[in-house]
Design a protein that fits this description.
- By secondary structure, the chain is an alpha+beta fold.
- The protein is 26% helix and 28% strand.
- The chain contains 7 helices and 13 strands.
- It has helices at residues 4-20, 27-30, 36-52, 67-73, 124-130, 152-157, 205-217; strands at residues 57-63, 79-84, 88-89, 95-96, 104-113, 131-141, 162-167, 183-188, 191-197, 228-230, 238-239, 245-250, 254-261.
- Strands 1, 2, 3, 5, 6, 7, 10 and 11 form an 8-stranded mixed beta sheet that branches. Strands 4-13-12-8-9 form a 5-stranded mixed beta sheet, with no helix packed on it.
- Strand 8 and strand 9 (191-197) form a beta hairpin.
- Helix 1 (4-20) packs across helix 3.
- The relative contact order is 0.20.
Length: 271
């Protein structure tokens, strides 16, 4: 584990990288002794900074929720990050790629909670009972670690690579569909580029939400009414290019779109 001063230093590196769009070398290289507990504490240091600036917690996301990704990272459980109020993006407003270091998108459903979830005892039944509706979603992910050269502690410390979330207009109650078997297709500029099924997320994405409720309870955190929870992607992540327009279609649930503008740069000239 790291010393308190090392955790603070690592948090400062990520904070500067995010603010200045200047990615840093992996924390796991700079701090060989870093572990997951250190990484969550580093994440929280920067979340508290953002909350102090007036942002609020809009929800949480689960990462590494497929068995393939867990094997790649050498772990046996997912990780998580925070979704803050300024990460909520709209379908009608193109996203400026210049705000990010290495943006990618992932296709997933979102759970919007109608009431708070229990903590350490949370089950999938609790999640379904507390979910007001399920929505189509696209998560924007980004890495403040150079070239996405991340190990587990790198992504956890970097808020699980969170960057933004877009929710589609559809609102469907859990009782009216099976969250564990929703086919999804992602299109870029009208051409299909990938497809998947929500069953890729721990066999049932509701399991990921229940896991998250239990996990954050150990940190004294509750998943609250009104929060959005992203359980993990049902497709591979896709790199974003300036000018791209994406649409994700979900069987029985609807669609969600996002377009990415060409950045004008700080001087308005594209430089």
């Amino acid at each position: 584990m790291l010393e308190t001063a090392q955790r603070a230093e690592a948090a400062d590196r990520l904070w500067t990288a995010q603010r200045e769009r200047t990615p840093v070398e992996p924390l796991t290289a700079a701090y060989p002794d870093i572990d997951a507990a250190d990484a969550y504490e580093i994440q929280l240091i920067n979340i508290r900074r953002q909350l102090a600036q007036g942002r609020t917690v809009h929800g949480h996301k689960v990462g590494l929720s497929s068995k393939v990704m867990q094997r790649m990272m050498g772990v046996d459980e997912p990780d998580y990050g925070h979704l803050l109020s300024d990460m909520v993006l709209g379908e009608d407003t193109p996203v400026d790629t210049g705000r990010y270091c290495f943006p990618r998108i992932e296709v997933e459903i979102g759970y919007v909670l109608g009431r708070s979830l229990p903590g350490e005892s949370c089950t999938t039944a609790d999640v379904l009972a507390a979910t007001e509706y399920i929505v189509p979603a696209i998560e924007l992910i980004d890495s403040r670690i150079r070239d996405w050269r991340i190990a587990l502690a790198d992504t956890i410390a970097d808020n699980a690579s969170s960057a933004g979330v877009l929710l589609g207009a559809a609102r469907v109650r859990p009782a009216d569909l099976n969250p564990a078997d929703i086919a999804a297709v992602l299109y870029r500029d009208g051409e299909e580029i990938t497809r998947g099924n929500t069953s890729a997320v721990l066999g049932d994405p509701t399991e990921a939400v229940a896991w998250l409720a239990r996990k954050v309870a150990s940190f004294g955190v509750t998943l609250e009414a009104g929060h959005v929870v992203l359980p993990g992607s049902c497709t591979a992540a896709v790199d974003v290019r300036p000018g791209d327009a994406f649409r994700a279609d979900f069987e029985g649930l609807g669609s969600v779109c996002v377009a990415f503008a060409r950045s004008t740069g700080q001087d308005g000239t594209g430089n």
